[in-house]
């Protein structure tokens, strides 16, 4: 049940009751595609420029999109963008896949800061996810598709996600000194309720914004509603302050604190082996997971021109992420596998993931003349990561022999990254041709701090240098139509959890041993595209081709036989290791169109096609998606806006031997928003109106037969509502 915390509820109510309302001028929820082309982005060059002048594909989700689509979680951000997929659901580990490439091969950045990495299963079924952030704090999310290491360094192998948070100026308009919002919402998918308030204050040259948000609900259900429910509670405190030295220079401080607690009635990882074991009965079980993320940033920004820069950004930041997972089970044991065992056993498993990053970031630009604008910058970052697991088995409060057992899934690892980039935006033919070559030098060190493997030998340290190149060009055929082409390189030094993981799960038939000779993954991305508008018809399309060398994948390197300690029978254990494979190729095409029938009605559609294979084995990548897209109609008049959207995907036939094909689907969503007064807005959404039962391919990828797909079906018909009061 949705029960907001008293303190937060009190703040929301008091601001709504005791603050005199004033008109809040807000852009219409439905920006036209033309204004979208003028939208300012930073992911393409690290400096602000209109999207129409960027030589590459960038998807943008705005604050208005988040409001209109009633987004309450990162998993919902890209629902209507088929080129970007989010794995995982509310309360679980989430990751973002861009054009079939995901995991930590896509770099996630918040206000310039590196966000936490994921851990577990390479982006498709992670244990620790990414994107620990509340969506109400976001002003814009950009997805730059394709390799971006010439600008952002290691990990930008398949693309980057840039989250930009809100400022006080996003609420204060027309010289206001105080403003804010109160927002409440509910969705029956997960029975989640949310309440939040934002306060913005300007006093002279000093401005501040504070956002408090609380969410309470359950896990998103499958179609049949048979998933064991998880109770999910999250809270967010976001604060940003700016001091303006003058119109061109400011100093800002940001604190973003996010926490989520998840409780459940099952202990999957702890009790999975014992569920069907003869003589073992489960009396009690439960699980708890707590996720915490804290980021702090001090940033200096200046557009006061000097001899070495026209624009300068310098920031210091820290980002700390923790996830603690606790499972408990109680067993009634009456078994005899060669010896009698009769006891009531209490069992605990506690796993803790920690990652802390400190960073110095800088970027600048300088117009040398009307033709050349130089961009350059230096980034230095240090991260420490660990994953520990403790098991305790006890009987009547006394630990059993050999317990507690403490293991490190990988040693505590220090990673040092430093990189310097430079690019030149060259304007030719009176500005019709923009040409941008770029390069970045990175040095990367990964240190296992002298830790030893189970065989007593030390883990290998990694010390790599790398140069990444890029070149992009954009030609304006007319004032409204432009074509672009780009080539970019990406690289990723082997992630600590893949290089160092030593995971013995022999009881489940497999183990993973660490690697000592992994090479950095590298990528080459080629893309051409066309975008613009003619009359009332707007369009954007791109074709891409990407190759990935030294791609990391698990390989079976042998088998061994062990004796099951419970049954006394021999078991065959598969030995796995992460290794570099020769190459992987991804290719595809994306297109989006919109036609404005008149001032009120428009129709729109987009689609994405992907193909990806292991070049050596010929196997399809399980991270690609089938041909999919959306089609819809939009209506907008005065204070009312509405959209009817068909979300569709074709049957996925690009599956490997032993895996089932996943059926295509078509679902219908209805979104509407009404500005009741200048201060009060109501938004509603009905999703999957026809109550269609279906499976998204990425959730079904890797399943061996159709029988288990019912567990990963999407929710049926759903309803969401949100009310926002501006003052």
From TrEMBL:
| Chief localisation class | membrane
Where would one find the signal peptide in this protein? 1-25
Q: Which domain of life is it from?
A: Bacteria
Domain TonB-dependent receptor-like beta-barrel span(s) in chain numbering: 246-689
Keywords linked to the UniProt accession: Cell outer membrane, Membrane, Receptor, Signal, TonB box, Transmembrane, Transmembrane beta strand, Transport
Q: State the membrane topology.
A: Multi-pass membrane protein
Localization in the cell: Cell outer membrane
List where the motif TonB C-terminal box lies: 710-727
Ranges for domain TonB-dependent receptor plug: 51-160
Alphabetized InterPro entries for the sequence: Beta-barrel_TonB, Beta-barrel_TonB_sf, Plug_dom, Plug_dom_sf, TonB-dep_rcpt-like, TonB_haem/Hb_rcpt, TonB_Hb/transfer/lactofer_rcpt, TonB_rcpt_CS
Family (UniProt): Belongs to the TonB-dependent receptor family. Hemoglobin/haptoglobin binding protein subfamily.
Which PANTHER family does the entry mention?
Answer: HEMOGLOBIN AND HEMOGLOBIN-HAPTOGLOBIN-BINDING PROTEIN 1-RELATED (PTHR30069:SF29), TONB-DEPENDENT OUTER MEMBRANE RECEPTOR (PTHR30069)
The molecule here is called Ligand-gated channel protein
Please tell me the species this chain comes from: Colwellia marinimaniae
**Organism lineage string:** Bacteria, Pseudomonadati, Pseudomonadota, Gammaproteobacteria, Alteromonadales
């Amino acid at each position: 049940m949705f029960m907001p915390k008293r303190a937060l509820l009190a703040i929301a109510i008091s601001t709504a009751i005791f603050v005199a309302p004033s008109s809040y001028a807000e852009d219409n929820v439905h920006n036209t595609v033309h204004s979208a082309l003028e939208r300012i982005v930073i992911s393409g060059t690290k400096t602000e420029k209109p999207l129409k002048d960027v030589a590459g594909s960038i998807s943008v989700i705005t604050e208005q999109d988040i409001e209109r689509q009633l987004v309450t979680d990162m998993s919902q951000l890209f629902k209507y963008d088929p080129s970007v997929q989010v794995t995982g659901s509310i309360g679980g580990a989430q990751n973002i896949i861009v054009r079939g490439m995901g995991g930590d091969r896509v770099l996630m950045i918040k206000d310039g800061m590196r966000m936490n990495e994921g851990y577990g299963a390479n982006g498709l079924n992670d244990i620790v996810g990414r994107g620990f952030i509340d969506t109400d704090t976001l002003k814009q999310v950009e997805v730059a598709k394709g390799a971006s290491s010439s600008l952002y360094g290691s990990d930008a192998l398949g693309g980057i996600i840039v989250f930009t948070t809100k400022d006080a100026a996003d609420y204060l308009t027309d010289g206001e000194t105080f403003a804010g919002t109160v927002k409440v919402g509910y969705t029956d998918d997960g029975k989640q309720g949310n309440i939040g308030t934002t306060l913005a204050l300007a006093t002279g040259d000093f401005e501040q914004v504070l956002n408090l948000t609380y969410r309470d609900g359950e896990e998103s259900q499958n179609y049949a509603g048979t998933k064991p429910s998880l109770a999910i509670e999250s809270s967010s405190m976001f604060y940003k302050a700016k001091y303006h030295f003058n119109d061109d220079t400011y100093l800002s401080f940001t604190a973003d604190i996010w926490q989520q607690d998840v409780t459940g009635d099952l202990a999957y990882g702890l009790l999975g082996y014992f569920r069907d074991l003869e003589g073992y009965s489960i009396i009690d079980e439960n699980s708890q997971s707590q996720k915490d993320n804290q980021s702090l940033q001090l940033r200096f920004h200046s557009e006061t021109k000097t001899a070495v820069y026209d624009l300068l950004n310098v920031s210091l930041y820290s980002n700390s992420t923790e996830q603690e997972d606790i499972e408990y089970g109680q067993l009634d044991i009456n078994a005899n596998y060669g010896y009698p065992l009769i006891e009531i056993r209490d069992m605990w498993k506690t796993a803790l993931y920690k990652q802390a990053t400190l960073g110095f970031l800088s970027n600048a630009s300088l117009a040398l003349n009307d033709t050349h604008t130089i961009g350059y910058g230096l980034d230095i970052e240090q991260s420490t990561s660990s994953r520990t697991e403790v098991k305790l088995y006890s009987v009547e409060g006394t630990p059993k022999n050999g317990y507690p057992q403490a293991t490190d899934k990988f040693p505590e690892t220090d990673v040092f990254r430093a990189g310097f980039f430079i690019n030149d935006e060259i304007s030719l033919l009176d500005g019709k041709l923009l040409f941008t070559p770029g390069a970045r030098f990175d040095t990367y060190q990964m240190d296992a701090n002298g830790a030893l493997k189970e065989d007593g030998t030390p883990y290998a340290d990694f010390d790599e240098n790398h140069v990444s190149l890029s070149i992009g060009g954009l030609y304006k055929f007319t004032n409204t139509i432009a074509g672009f082409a780009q080539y970019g390189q990406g690289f990723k030094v082997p992630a600590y959890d893949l290089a160092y993981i030593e995971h013995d799960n022999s009881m489940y038939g497999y183990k993973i041993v660490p690697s000592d000779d992994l090479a950095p993954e590298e990528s080459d991305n080629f893309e051409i595209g066309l975008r613009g508008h003619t009359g009332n018809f707007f369009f954007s399309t791109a074709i891409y081709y990407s190759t990935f060398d030294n791609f990391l994948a698990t390989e079976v390197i042998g088998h061994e036989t062990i004796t099951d300690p419970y049954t006394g029978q021999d078991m065959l254990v598969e030995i796995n290791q992460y290794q570099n494979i020769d190459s992987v190729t991804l290719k595809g095409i994306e297109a989006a169109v919109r036609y404005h029938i008149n001032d009120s009605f428009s129709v729109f559609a987009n689609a994405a096609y992907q193909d990806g294979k292991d070049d050596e084995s010929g196997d399809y990548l399980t991270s690609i998606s089938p041909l999919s897209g959306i089609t819809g109609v939009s209506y907008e008049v005065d204070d009312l806006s509405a959209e009817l959207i068909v979300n569709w995907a074709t049957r996925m036939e690009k599956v490997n031997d032993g895996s089932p094909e996943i059926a295509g689907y078509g679902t219908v969503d209805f979104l509407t928003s009404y500005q009741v007064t200048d201060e009060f807005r109501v938004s509603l959404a009905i999703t999957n109106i026809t109550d269609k039962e279906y499976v998204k391919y990425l959730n079904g990828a890797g399943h061996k037969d159709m029988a288990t797909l019912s567990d990963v079906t999407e929710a049926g018909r759903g309803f969401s509502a949100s009310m926002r009061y501006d003052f």
